[in-house]
Please model this.
Amino acid sequence: MSTVSVTDRGGGVFAVSGDLTFTGIDKKIIKSLTFLTSANPLTLDLSQVGNTDSAGLALVIEWIKYTRERQIELKLRKLPKQLLTLAKLSGLDQTCYFAESDSNCKSQEN
Model:
């Protein structure tokens, strides 16, 4: 088990690493959403993510919601297969965020 961490790579790119699982996500990550407002557009690189479960999917959805509410363009790069599978099972694979290729979604008010 590896705790989730987010590292600023510069230029609006943040690397997410660790396990996006119930045991890998701590309260500090959940509460520290301010990094999501540091750039527009913003890219989250998930290539260093290990295991994922429904808690990880919920966290990514929270990041999407947070950026959409603030009209920040969010790109999710190199989504792990487990996360894509969970998104598909949840019916989220039809959204631009969980497309098979790197996603790029402009925030819009619905």
Q: What stands out?
A: The chain has three helices and five strands.
